Each structure stands twice: as C-alpha cells, then as structure tokens.
Amino acid sequence: MKENVNENAGDLFCSGVLESARIEKLRINPRAEFGEALRKKDIATCLVKTAEIHGHYCPGSALGVMASMYGLHLLGPDCMNSDGVMENLLAIVEINACFADGVQAVSGCTLGNNSLIYRDLGKLAVTFAVRGKEEGVRIRARPEFKKYVGDAVPEFYPLMEKVIMNRAGTPEEEKSFREKGQEAAFALMKLPFEKIFVAETVVPDIPDYAPIAASAVCPQCGEIVMATKIDRDTGMCFMCSRKYREVEGRGIVEKA
After folding, report:
1. What are the pLDDT digits (tens) for 131-164?
2. Which segments constitute the Formylmethanofuran dehydrogenase subunit E domain (predicted)?
3. Could you tell me where the beta strands, DSSP code E, fall in the chain?
4. Which pTM was predicted?
C-alpha cells in the first residue's frame, strides 16, 4: 500500500514540476503555445486552445482558427507573436459569431486590447493588417464549406436547426449536437485551406490607435465613465441618458 502511495506521490510531483514549468513559460510569454502551434501549422492545438474560451467545438470557430492561421502565415512570421500591446497587428472581423472567437484566440487580436475591429457585415471573413504596411490580407470562407460539413457529419445541420434555431431539442439531442459539432470542427481542419477559403490582397481601412480617454463621474448614478462616453447635453453616462448601443447576436443594436 505504501509503495502505491509513493508511486502516486511521485506522479503528482512530476506532474506538478511539468505544470510549473509550463506556467513559468506562459508567465514569460502568455502566447507561447499559440506561437509554437502557429509556426508548426498545428491547427488541432489551436482549435483545442480556442475551445477553452469559446466553450465548445463547432465549424464556425474552426473556420476562424483556420482563417487566422492562413492569414498570419501569408503576412509573415513576425505576425505570429503579437501580444496586442502596441496594436500593430489588427484583425478586422466581419461577424460576431463563433468565427470571431477563433480569430481572437489564434491571432491574439481581441476586443479588449483594441486590436480587433468588428464590422457588422455578417460575413465569415477577416482582414489582417499591420500598421505601417499598405496592404493586408482578407480571408473569406467559401460557401462550399457547408457541403463539406454536411457530407462529413450529416447529423450536424438537422440537429443545429432543432437545437439552436428552433430551441426545441431534448437534453439528449443537445448532447448529440455538441458531439457532432466537435466532429464537424475536426473534420474541417483536415481539408486544405484553399478548398474552403479565398485569400485576397487588400488595402485595408485602418482606424487610428485607440485613444486614452479621461474619466468622468456620471451625476446621475455616480459611476466612473470614460469622458468620451457621456451625453454632452446632460453630462450623464449613456446608460442613464438612455442613449447607447450594444453588440449582441443581431449585431450592433441601438438601445436608445
């Protein structure tokens, strides 16, 4: 019995050492694992790590992962190590759905670090650009990707219609939908990029660097708010003045 305890303790120790080494590596460079996977064109690792933030596997996030890997390789190796601090690498994404999470995870361009620009166009497409360079690359999904998904996992789209679109699935069907989504995502990544994507050289319209705004205090709710986000007539925040927009499943929606 003691030997088993010692063996288990040894396993735990080794596991702890390996995990500590990984944590230290990521402490120094939080995007080290993504960078390595990008350089090796390891789509599977990128897909798994993307699912950590997206929450599940699906064709949409897989397309975002693949489009980002494709686009960043076309831009060059320097674009695979962006940490978002200087906002030099930008991703202009055209849909606020699963695809966008694949783009954010793999490229490191996120809403929070101001390197992700969202254009409310409803297209499975992303443009990667580097400040100071005239040309960027736009990657868009071919419509044929749906046929590949349907052929590889015939159950996926019928389940999607029932579970997601109609909100009428049973618990068993919801479980099956998640499983088929995983199958579909990993089936897509086996296809050549050119079979499901088109790459175009573009001259992108790039916004200025994100400004650092002063803070103000709303006289109505007393909360701190960016001075650029107050109603000029009343000095109140947009929430109190009932003048704001939000990004939701339908896109950018006026809430005034």
Report:
1. 999 999 999 999 999 999 999 999 999 999 999 9
2. 53-197
3. 89-93, 116-118, 125-130, 136-141, 197-202, 215-217, 224-226, 245-248, 251-254
4. 0.88
